[in-house]
User: Fold Solute-binding protein family 3/N-terminal domain-containing protein from Clostridium botulinum.
Amino acid sequence: MCPEAAKNLIENDDRFEISCPLVSNSDIFVLKDENKIKKIAMTQNRIYQEKIIKDEYGEKVQIYPMIYSSLPYALEKGRVDGIIIDSIKSLKLNGQKKALSINKNYTSYVLVIKKKFKKDKKFKEFITNYNKSVMELKRKDRIKNSIEDYKKINLSNEEVEQWLKLKVKFFLIPQQEY
Assistant:
């Protein structure tokens, strides 16, 4: 779950808590022309994306919050010069793909759990299986197969290399906490 949605959930339902970060830097920029950036669209209500845009392009860039599904359309039709979007969803979009700044890490997704589920044996099994998957995703062939299976697309080796350069990080869930 994105950090803003997770925060909203736990503020409104005390049965849940944010356990840990799962993914960082999964958002990337897709740009028409990296040298002409004046307007960037982002997903509405994702405050962290606004911070990313300002960190990357300064205060002068105009930011346009919009519904997530309209981001590629806005870019394609030239309504904006760039968008910030999940790296997986960017794979088949036209435009320059740009990773976030090298010196920054942004939490893209967090694990939200029901507090009473923490003590359940099934949660411990989930952690084991999730962590095993994260370790497998460190292998280039597994990341390619996983993305292809998930998105129902074929990726070239060049596209996989491009995705790997985006610095998306998957985190292990600490087991000792549970």
About this structure: The first helix runs from residue 3 to 12. The longest strand covers residues 16-24.
